[in-house]
Write a structure and sequence with these properties.
alpha/beta, globular, eight-stranded mixed sheet, 285 residues
Length: 285
C-alpha cells in the first residue's frame, strides 16, 4: 500500500480542487490519501464525491498552533467535523486569516512591494487565505522566483519583515479538542527549521504525555540527520511515525506520494479514530 497522509486542495492553499486531488492521487498510484487543508474541512464532500475506485480518503485538517511563541502545525485525522468545540476553534483561526493577510499586504507595501489585497484574494479564491497565497503574489510580481523563496526572514517566514501573527491554537488544547472529537493527532514537519524556529524536543515530550499520537518524520523539509533524530525521539516517546508529501499542487515542488506512511502505522491511526472513518472510493464522477 502507498499511503500519503498530508495533502492540500483549493479549500486552503493547494492548487488542485478536492476532486482533482483525489483523481491525481489515484493516477500517482496511491492507495490512501489524506485531505488535510489548513483549519478547514470544506473540501471533504467534493473529494468524497469524486473518489475513484481503489483509492481511500482519510478526512482531516492541518491545525494552526503556537506554543511558547513558536508556530507549529498539527495534523488531525478522522475527527467528527461537526463536533462543536473543535468546529468553533477552527472557525476562530480561519476568521483571523483575512485580517492577517491584509496586514502582510500592508507591510509589503511599506517595503515597496506593489502587492494588493485584490491580487491575494484572487489567488486564494474560495480557499482559506494564507501565506502561500501572499507568496504566490510575490512570485507573480517577480519579487521572488518561487513560493519557497518567499518563506525567508526577508519576507514571510516567522519573524520576517512582512510577517504578521494570527490566532493560533495552543497545541495542548488542540490535542484535547481533536481527541474529544474522536480524532488522531500528528505533529506536522516538526524539524522543518528552514521555516523558522522549531519546537524543542522537551515540548514534544510534553505533547506526547498529553496524548499526541505521532510525528511526521518523512517530509521534504527534513534532511537525513533530522529524520534519524526524529525516529529516535518517536521511539523514545512511543509515538507513531508518519511520512507524507505535504502536496500543494503546483504551488510547491513536492509530488503526491513523494513520502509515504507505513501501512501498519496507518492501521493504528484508523484503529484509534472514533470520530470518522476512512472512505473507500467506489467510482466518483
Amino acid at each position: 500500500m502507498r499511503i500519503d497522509l498530508h495533502c492540500h486542495s483549493t479549500a486552503s492553499d493547494g492548487t488542485d480542487t478536492p476532486a482533482e486531488l483525489v483523481r491525481n492521487a489515484a493516477a500517482a498510484g496511491l492507495d490512501v490519501v489524506a485531505l488535510t487543508d489548513h483549519d478547514s474541512t470544506r473540501g471533504h464532500a467534493e473529494a468524497i464525491a469524486a473518489l475513484p475506485p481503489g483509492l481511500t480518503l482519510v478526512t482531516g485538517a492541518e491545525l494552526s498552533c503556537r506554543v511558547d511563541g513558536v508556530s507549529m502545525h498539527m495534523l488531525a485525522y478522522l475527527f467528527d467535523p461537526d463536533e462543536p468545540a473543535l468546529l468553533a476553534e477552527r472557525e476562530l483561526v480561519r476568521d483571523d486569516r483575512v485580517p492577517r493577510a491584509r496586514g502582510m499586504v500592508a507591510r509589503l507595501n511599506e517595503l515597496g512591494v506593489p502587492v494588493t489585497w485584490e491580487q491575494v484574494a484572487r489567488i486564494a479564491g474560495e480557499g482559506s487565505v494564507g501565506r502561500p497565497h501572499v507568496a504566490t503574489a510575490l512570485v507573480e510580481l517577480g519579487v521572488v522566483p518561487t513560493v519557497s523563496d518567499a518563506f525567508t526572514r526577508e519576507w514571510l517566514a516567522d519573524g520576517g519583515r512582512a510577517y504578521v501573527e494570527k490566532h493560533e491554537t495552543d497545541p495542548f488544547e488542540a490535542i484535547r479538542l481533536v481527541k474529544a472529537a474522536g480524532g488522531v493527532t500528528v505533529f506536522a514537519h516538526p524539524g522543518a527549521s528552514k521555516r523558522g524556529r522549531t519546537v524543542p524536543e522537551s515540548v514534544i515530550a510534553e505533547l506526547a504525555a498529553a496524548g499526541l499520537d505521532g510525528i511526521e518524520v518523512d517530509h521534504m523539509d527534513h534532511g537525513d540527520d533530522t529524520r534519524a533524530r526524529l525516529r529516535g525521539l518517536a521511539a523514545d516517546l512511543g509515538l507513531l511515525v508518519t511520512g507524507s508529501s505535504d502536496y500543494h499542487g503546483s504551488r510547491k515542488t513536492c509530488v503526491l506520494g513523494e513520502y509515504t506512511t507505513d501501512p501498519e502505522v496507518y492501521g493504528e491511526i484508523t484503529r484509534r479514530a472514533t470520530g470518522a472513518f476512512p472512505v473507500p472510493g467506489t467510482g466518483g464522477a
